[in-house]
Amino acid sequence: PKQLLPLNSDLSMLQETVQRVTGTGFAPPLIICNEAHRFVIAEQLRALDVEPDKIILEPEGRNTAPAAAVAALLLARQDPEAVMLLLPSDHLIEDVAGFHAAVELAGAAADKGDLATFGIPPVRPETGYGYIQRGEPHGKGCFRVARFVEKPDAETARGYLSDGGYDWNSGMFLFPVRSYLDELERLKPDVLKACRPSVAEAIQDLDFLRLDREAFVKAESVSVDYAVMEHTDKAVVVPVEMGWNDVGAWSALWDLGEKDEHGNVVSGDVIIHGTTGSYIRSENKLVAAVGLDNTIIVTTDDAVLVIHKDHAQDVKVIVDKLENVGRTEHKVHSRVYRPWGYYQLIDAGDRFQVKQIGVKPGSKLSLQMHHHRAEHWVIVSGTANITRGDETFVLHENQSTYIPIGMKHSLENPGKVPLRLIEVQSGAYLGEDDIVRFEDRYGRVPGVTERE
Predict the structure, then answer these.
(1) Distance between CA atoms of 36 and 181, rounded to whole angstroms?
(2) What is the pTM of this model?
(3) Do the Cβ atoms of 180 and 115 come closer than 8 Å?
(4) How many CB atoms lie within 10 A of CB 232?
(5) What dihedral angle (degrees, nearest 10) is formed by the CA atoms of 81, 82, 86, 87?
(6) Rounded to an integer, what distance in angstroms lies between the CA atom of residue 1 and that of residue 332?
(7) What confidence tens digit (pLDDT) does each residue in 326-347 have?
(8) What's the Cα-to-Cα distance from 53 to each of 121, 186, 370, rounded to whole Å?
(9) Which of 110-114, 314-318, 359-363 is predicted least confidently?
(10) Any idea of the CA torsion for 452, 354, 44, 297, to the nearest 10 degrees?
(11) Contact 384/419 with Cβ under 8 angstroms?
(12) What is the distance between the alpha carbons of residues 152 and 238, in angstroms, rounded to a whole number?
C-alpha cells in the first residue's frame, strides 16, 4: 500500500504522518490497520523510535466509521473526555506548522462538543475530491458545515471555485470521543453494535490487538462522512492551507516534485533524453527514457509500470487484471516482514529460490521442517545460532550450512547487531505453505504450515 512506501522522502507516508503528530500536545499514536501489514508497520514505527498506544488489527476493512468507532471505544476506556484526531496515513502535508495551527482551532471546537473536519481551500476545479460548503462562522477560524457535496463534474467544480465558500474534503477529523460515539449511536447504531463486542472480545497478539472477527465483520462498511458528518448538527469545518495532497495517483507525485527545465521529475538511477513533462522513478536499476512526453515510469525489483500521465487513475484497471489472473505483485511486497525480521526474494526459477533473510538481535525463527525443499544458508553479516536436527552450532560471516529435506531446523540471532544471510532453496515445491512448525516463541500455533 502507498501508505507504507517512501514516496515523498526517505520516510514512508505512514512514518511522515506519525512524525507530524509526535511531540508536545499529542498522545502516542493509535494505529488501525489490516492484519497482513502488522509487522511492516511495527518495524516502521520502531525505526522512528515511536512506541504506539496500540496497533489494532482489522480482520477485514470496513471503511472509516467502524475504524473510528473502535478507536473511540478504546480511548474512552482511558479517558472519557479524550479528543481523537483521525488521520489517513497517505496524505502529504508540506506546512506542518499550518496543520498544527488548524488542529488547535479544531480543538477549540471539540471542547464545545463539536465534530470538526478540515477543509482544503481549492486551487483548481477538481473532480476527484468531495467538497464541503461552509456555513455560518462558528468561533475563530471555524464554520458550521452547510453541506457535504459528492465529487462534482468539471463545470460544477469550476462553479464552486468561482463562488467561494467551498473546500475540498480532506477526510481528516478531530472529535471528542464521547460526541462521536453518541452521534454514531443515534445515527448508525448497528455500526456501534458490531464494534463494541469486537473491542470487548479483542485479544492481544504479541504487540498487536486483534479485533474479534465474528463481531467486527457485521459492521456496515461506511465512511465517517456518510455515517455521521452528513447528518449531525455538530459538524464544523476548519479551512486550512497547508500544502495538502492525498497522492491519489502517481501523477500527484509529478505535481509535487521538483521539475527540471523540461518539466520532468526523476528519482533514482535515471537517464533521459528528449523527454518532457514526465515522472520517472527507479528503485533498483537504470532506467533510460528517450523521446517521451507526459509519461510515468516506475520500476521496482518485481515490476515496471509505464503509463501516460493522463491515465494515471487507470492503474486500478491493471490491479483488477492482476487479481483476476491470480498474481500477487499488487498485494505482496518483495520484502516480507515477520516478528523476527524479514525475508526478501532475490531470484527464482525452476526448482530454486534465493532469498535474503534479516533477523533482529535476540530474535529467533520457529523450529520447523519442510517436506519438499532443502535450504542452503550463507551468513553475510552477524552471528547465527543454528539448530540442525540434533546439532546446535554457531556460524559467523562467510560460513554456511545445509538443511536437507525433512530435517528440523531453526535460526537465531544471539548477537547485538542484525543478522543477514542468503538462503538458497531447492526442491520440487517452494511455496511458503511448506512449513511445519514445532516450536515458536511468538505464540504462533505449532503445526500451522505457513511462514508467518
Answers:
(1) 28
(2) 0.85
(3) yes
(4) 18
(5) 150
(6) 9
(7) 988 887 788 888 999 999 999 9
(8) 33, 28, 38
(9) 314-318
(10) -120
(11) yes
(12) 21
